[in-house]
Amino acid sequence: MSPANDRIETLYCVTVTRRRIARMDNDEVNQLLVRIGREDQAAFRQLYKAFSQKVYAYVLNMLNDHARAEEVLADTLYEVWRHPQHFRGDSQFSTWLIGIARRKALMVYRARRPDEVHGDLDDIAETTASDTPDGYAELAGKQRREGVQHCMGKLSDEHRECLHLVFYEGMGLAEVAEVQNCPEGTVKTRLFHARQKIKKCLQSLLRSEGGAPDAKGALAS
Q: How many CB atoms are located within 10 Å of the residue 23 CB?
């Protein structure tokens, strides 16, 4: 693999990795939900501590707005506080909780002004070009995560959500299919295309920095 391709591989793999998140199993969750049904605030705080970061990261990825993500997180967990009995244990609690957050986030997203919606991947070279000779070094050293997040922000909503759930939340295909309300085969297709677009975006970004002139075919699965 060429040095340019190594740079893209590093940029992608260091920042977009499947995170092994320790899960609270449903038995533990159900015990907390029973206590929450009795308005036990300590149990609610425990549940909040276990799941709030996951839900917030998911919603922030959808909306790209910290204030709105915090509002959706609060609304989502308040719904659990009001109706803990609605969780029936048919799926992992985190999957069910993200399903609630997704519905609320979509309502916020659809109410946004049109000029807040992201553009296409086609303008990546223009929007990420750097005039500094050490542009790649700066990107690779200090802005790896920002580069990948920038590229993820250029994906379609379905592709970005699918990639986030798999790589950042560690969900399996069946869980993602449940959240996105689609067949597993559709999830596989979305994941494949999302990965390809991310790779293409990163290649274009690095070429714009003068670091990957021959990067065609890099990061092939």
A: 15
